[in-house]
């Protein structure tokens, strides 16, 4: 749908499809070829996307394609590519879509590598606004990626292929020519597992990957095959954007991480929440800096949902000077004086007089909160600042900043607790190692002492020890004499007793 070819001719002999006169071929995508055409009846340029012969043979797909195209035609948003018609002629099924005189975000990333922080956040906000509008119409894109984000020559962001991506999801293989690994690289993990049962959070994930790509010039997950990319996403480990680009703020890094959370339950629940956090950063550019002559994007924000009290400011009471919400009040200058009622740093309720400009500065500095009230005269009634057009946007921004600060503080508290637990773990391990080493040294000293005592006894009594042991068990000097040799004492006793030794002749 972007102008990528200037001289290419239509590849077939058909030069007109219904109300659309084909001029030249712009490119080819997963569905078929794309042509630049002129709508004869309204005399305007459009892009005509034709279905390939293979898809045209599938009656079920054609019916779904037409149904999704009609649903997409209901989306009327400045950042969503419009569908003008869906029809068939000469056996060719086609859709006429808004023509963009620029190129895709992917082409810009190929040229620039990465974008400035302000431009990246600007693009993410515009896409989130388009997705918020579509999700409110129960439309899920399911194929957000830089190829489907088009930029006009005036820097206007256009999200393409709403509805068409959903119709094609079950019918176009990821290996078909023109699709490659584009979809898996940005696809949410749950969508890879079951593309039929996903909700708007899959678009938030894909937009998070796109924002990561714009900020770092890299993709969080890569692989040589689709399976490798999907498996890497299932693990959920990637280098944080701030690691690759240290100048990024911690808040922006946390926003990207939350958009890309592997578990949908840990992700942003809606694009409204994404927008609040991105806008609260205050870093987005008014116009894209890398496009010469780019125009500033119009501010699009939802109307603040502030409940009105019984005595609403727009309904004056008799004798009351409460301000109305007419155009006169909305156009007051910053020199108007207000009576402001708020709580000071000590929690005490005070009333001060301030100009419009001063109140706006106090809201930006956090000196005033959404609880503050104001009135335009001494005898009027106080009403919340958010009910005055002069302060509605500032109060909304203040709430967004406070919410982001609370989340940041919660994350800091979590990090501190983790760090404290980790230090305690290392301390306990050191204590255990210390006592283990002490026990080991003591055991070694005892063993060495026992060995020393044994050696000392051996050295002192080594010569006498064998004889003592032998005597204790009955093996002394008498045991060494032969049993057939009686002692001298025994021989003498026998002689006195009249016993004659053997071999002697006793006289008669």
TrEMBL record:
Binding site for ATP: 49
Gene3D superfamilies membership: Phosphorylase Kinase, domain 1, Transferase(Phosphotransferase) domain 1
Highest taxon listed in the record's lineage: Bacteria
Molecular-function GO term, any one: protein serine/threonine kinase activity
InterPro entries: Kinase-like_dom_sf, Prot_kinase_dom, Protein_kinase_ATP_BS, Ser/Thr_kinase_AS
Enzyme Commission code(s) on record: 2.7.11.1
Spans annotated as Disordered: 480-508
Presence of keyword RNA-binding: no
Class of this enzyme: transferase
Signal sequence bounds: none
Pfam families found in the cross-reference section: Pkinase
Domain Protein kinase: 20-281
TM region(s), chain numbering: 434-459
Protein keywords: ATP-binding, Kinase, Membrane, Nucleotide-binding, Serine/threonine-protein kinase, Transferase, Transmembrane, Transmembrane helix
Protein name: non-specific serine/threonine protein kinase
Species for this entry: Planctomyces bekefii
